[in-house]
Structures are given as structure tokens and as C-alpha cells.
Amino acid sequence: LQSLACVERWGYERLEACGVAVGNDVFSAGSAAASPVLSQLRANVLNRNVVRTANPTASFGAAILAAGTVLFGGNLTAATRVMSRVLESHAPQPDEVDRYQKTYQLFRAACAQHGLG
After folding, report:
1. Model pLDDT for residues 63-83, shown as the tens digit of each residue
2. HEC string of the chain?
3. What are 17-65's pLDDT values in tens digits?
4. Residue 63 contacts residue 73 (beta carbons within 8 Å)
5. How far apart are CA 97 and CA 103, in angstroms?
6. 88-99 burial by CB neighbour count: b if 16+ within 10 A, else e?
7. Residue among 99, 106, 104, 103 nearest 10 (CA)
8. First vs last Cα of the chain: how many Å apart?
């Protein structure tokens, strides 16, 4: 699970390096979103809030993307906030964020040893 969270963090870092504003809240979908343990782990590794909404399905996500483009002028954050209802949110825990920072650095070093990023 830590590896999944590390890959996710790396993905967000790559997006930000390309100029994409990721924001502090990560909206979680799928069956894994229902796991408070995984959500807290992700919040700590990502150092972002991990939020589970009432409709965490792909089809609802597609509806948000469509509405964000058409009704919200491309502002997907606004579309998500208006169209979603939060069931729970997991905030990063500072002590755990520090601990997982070291784990993340080891993960990135291992990736670099294998010629990845």
C-alpha cells in the first residue's frame, strides 16, 4: 500500500512539474476509497487531504468532467466542490508525514537505481 501511495505522490509531482495545479485535496474513488486505513496512509504520504465523496464512481467523475467544462468554464475544482458531497476526509498527520517523507525518498532512490525517473 505504501508503494501505491508513493507512485501516486510521484504522479502528482510530475503533474505539478508540468504546470498542473493539483491542489491540497485529493478526491478518492473506487472501492479502495472506502478504506479509512488506506485513505489515512495516502494522506500521510501525499501530505494532502484525502476525501471520499458520496458518489465515488467513474460515471459520476465523467459527469463532473463534462459539467466542469461546460457549466464551470473549465474549473474542475469548482465543479467537484458543487457536485460532490463529502462523506469523510483524512488530513495528513504531521509526525507520519515526516516518517513517510523518508520512505518516499527511499522509494525514489530505488526507482532511480532501476533507471526510472
Report:
1. 999 999 999 999 988 998 899
2. CHHHHHHHHHHHHHHHHCCCCCCCEEEECCHHHHCHHHHHHHHHHHCCEEEEECCCCHHHHHHHHHHHHHCCCCCHHHHHHHHCCEEEEECCCHHHHHHHHHHHHHHHHHHHHCCCC
3. 999 988 899 988 778 888 999 999 999 999 999 999 888 888 888 999 9
4. no
5. 10
6. eebebeeeebee
7. 104
8. 20
Cα 4 to Cα 58: distance, rounded to the nearest angstrom: 19
pTM of the model: 0.83
Question: Which set of grid coordinates corresponds to residue 93?
Answer: 498527520
Strand 86-90 and strand 25-28: the pairing is unpaired
